[in-house]
């Protein structure tokens, strides 16, 4: 039964809406790029890197994530990174991706904004031309840095705004509430960009409220802790807000103690528009189908639940209404 459901999930067309492209840097590529760029890394082997991927919270992970990024220096590096991800998701029948990148993780190290975004965009257009996988790009602000730095990043993005769909907010959540970025999100909206934000991963329900009220988000990244507040759940449900949930990430970062305690099924039962995503697949143990497999095995999901998750991924995307309709109809045919 479980095997059949996993096979069904694998066959369904899906969209991935929560993916940090820098978090798709597999240890093998980390080594290859370190060699190519002559960057020292504190690991002797791919196995040693994998063994270091044990985290007790979000900050633990972020420290290693920012270390890993140091091997990304040239446009070709960003192209190779993005292409490897796009090649990998095809095996999971992912037909559309909306990916985050962290420009400040690169500009802070002296890598120009244009270098990072050029490499990523070239891979995204090649993937559409070669495989028909469509994409949108979301530029994230690092919330542990001051809002002024986010404003400087928005300025650097000015020549690229026709190729950036939205701004996002990621990095260390605790102590860095959405309210810290109210002005820069307003500026982004004034530029015509959509808005998303990580909230309620480690932070309290009030951070989710701030993301709604102050950042005017179009989509909520994670949102797990919203479930602690009934009125907030009702509000998210009434607004038909999409939640980009990341089960294996939640397990690896100890947001949940065990996959059987994951709130995904509860979210669906409450009428929330949850989706399944991989967040940082190289660090958290898998891509979209690995996440589906984990929740199908742990949470007793029904065939209808799985179909709803796939449908939510397109319905909650930033594709046009007609593109959404075509994907939803394809799901109904399976
Ligand atoms: N949370 C916050 N920031 C991040 C994450 C995450 O899961 N992954 C990469 N940056
Ligand atoms: Zn994330």
Task: Give the CATH superfamily.
Answer: Metal-dependent hydrolases
At CATH's second level, what is the architecture? Alpha-Beta Barrel
- CATH names the topology as TIM Barrel
Number of domains: 1
Mean pLDDT reading: 98
Strand % is 5-15%
Q: pLDDT below 50 for ≥5 consecutive residues: which ranges?
A: none
Q: Radius of gyration in whole Å, from Cα?
A: 19 Å
Tally of strands: 8
| Separation, N- and C-terminal Cα atoms | 17 Å
Q: In what order do the strands lie side by side in the largest sheet?
A: 1-2-3-4-5-6-7-8
**Number of distinct helices:** 17
Q: Are any ligands bound, and if so which?
A: hypoxanthine, zinc ion
Helix fraction by DSSP (H/I, runs of at least 4): 40-55%
Order of helices and strands: HEHHHHEHHEHEHEHEHEHHEHHHH
Tell me, briefly, the overall form. globular
What is the CATH class? Alpha Beta
Characterization of this structure:
The structure is a single chain. This protein starts with a helix and ends with a helix. The chain is built from 17 helices and eight strands. Strands 1-2-3-4-5-6-7-8 form an eight-stranded parallel β-sheet. Helix 1 (2-11) packs antiparallel against helix 15 (288-299), helix 8 (147-156) packs parallel to helix 9 and helix 16 (303-315) runs antiparallel to helix 17 (321-332). Helix content is 51%, strand content 14%. Helix 8 (147-156) links the parallel strand 3 and strand 4 (166-170). It is an alpha/beta fold and 334 residues long. The chain has one domain (2-332): TIM Barrel.
Keywords summarizing the entry:
334 residues, alpha/beta, TIM Barrel, eight-stranded parallel β-sheet, 17 helices, 8 strands, globular, binds hypoxanthine, binds zinc ion
């Amino acid at each position: 039964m479980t095997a059949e459901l996993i096979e069904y999930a694998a066959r369904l067309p899906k969209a991935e809406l929560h993916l940090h492209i820098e978090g798709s840097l597999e240890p093998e590529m980390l080594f290859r790029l370190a060699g190519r760029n002559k960057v020292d890394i504190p690991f002797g082997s791919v196995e040693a890197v994998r063994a270091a991927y044990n985290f007790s919270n979000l900050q633990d992970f972020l420290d290693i994530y920012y270390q890993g990024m140091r091997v990304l220096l040239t446009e070709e590096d960003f192209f190779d990174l993005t292409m490897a991800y796009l090649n990998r998701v095809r095996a999971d029948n992912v037909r559309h991706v909306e990916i985050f990148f962290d420009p400040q993780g690169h500009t802070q190290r002296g890598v120009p904004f244009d270098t990072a975004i050029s490499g990523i965009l070239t891979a995204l257009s090649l993937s559409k031309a070669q495989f028909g996988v469509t994409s949108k790009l979301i530029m994230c602000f690092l919330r542990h840095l001051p809002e002024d730095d986010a404003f400087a990043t928005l300025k650097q993005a000015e020549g690229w705004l026709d190729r950036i769909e939205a701004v996002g907010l990621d990095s260390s959540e605790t102590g860095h509430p959405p309210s810290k970025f109210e002005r820069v999100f307003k500026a982004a909206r004034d530029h015509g960009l959509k808005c998303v934000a990580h909230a309620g991963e480690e932070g309290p329900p009030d951070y989710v409220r701030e993301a709604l009220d102050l950042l005017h988000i179009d989509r909520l990244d994670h949102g797990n802790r919203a479930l602690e507040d009934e009125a907030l759940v009702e509000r998210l449900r009434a607004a038909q807000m999409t939640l980009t949930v990341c089960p294996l990430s939640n397990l690896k970062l100890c947001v949940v103690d065990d996959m059987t305690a994951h709130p995904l099924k509860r979210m669906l039962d409450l009428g929330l528009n949850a989706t399944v995503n991989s967040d940082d697949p190289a660090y958290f143990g898998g891509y979209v189908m690995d996440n589906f497999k984990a929740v199908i095995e742990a949470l007793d999901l029904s065939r209808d639940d799985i179909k709803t998750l796939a449908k939510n991924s397109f319905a909650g995307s930033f594709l046009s209404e007609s593109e959404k309709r075509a994907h939803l109809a394809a799901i109904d045919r399976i």
